Amino acid sequence: MPLTSKLDRYLAQIREDMPQLRPRSAKTAADGQYNDVVIVDDRMVCRFPKRDAHVEAAAASVSLLGRIHDLLPLAVPHAAGVHLSGRTAGAAYVAYPFIAGEPFHREAWESVSAAEVRRTIAAQLAAFLRALHGVDLDRVADLALPSADVAAWEAMYASIRARLFEYMRPDARAAVVDHFDALLAGLDFTPRLIHGDFGTSNLLYDRAAKRITGVIDFDGAGPGDPATDIAALMSYGDEFMSLLVGEYPGSESLLGRARLYRGTFALQEALFGIEHGDSDAFDAGIEEYR
Hints:
The chain is an alpha+beta fold. The protein has eleven helices and ten strands.
């Protein structure tokens, strides 16, 4: 379906559910793997799960954020309207107040020259992770959250072997086997509440103020290894990681596993692509292994 007609359909659903909103303008955000995102008047964000299987994940995310948002030092989505019950993909969505900011891509980090500002940004993200990883899991134990435990990583590896190995060069397959042997052998951790997708696209940044303004997309949040969140920040480079470790006591011990997790990111993208018929994601993830 053309993007314009899909946007029109989403807007019609928003107007029906929230007539008080009276949207004057709307735009779509960057394409996501699991949700279509509509920004209304730069004041409301509506996230529409792309598939029925993701509607339940959206509901769990809403419940999670309702319980932990006041424990976190940065702004996170806090639902203003939940339209999920009894709905399928295309009609189901959650509305959140807009959190201002642009994705904190590596280019934005590299544009910051002042050492003190760099330390402040690293300290903001470290404080957020300390708070998130410090949430008592009993607080959210009744929620249907994804669990990134050892069994989940073993299942992912099995899927990679079954679905991706046929597209890889022989030496690339051997390297993946060695990588996962090392990863799975070292998975000895105490589960913490993790974000699960703490990458640059989900961190919001005010370029003028030179500060992180919020963290979004908690659909992958649940019990797991805090090193996976650390791994997602490694794209900022060694200086950033040194600053982060200085602000997050104990995180240095996570770096070894974090490096191994980071080495799976492209494979995860390729696996998502082949499982969901997303050729762009598959091609981007498998490229270096062909």
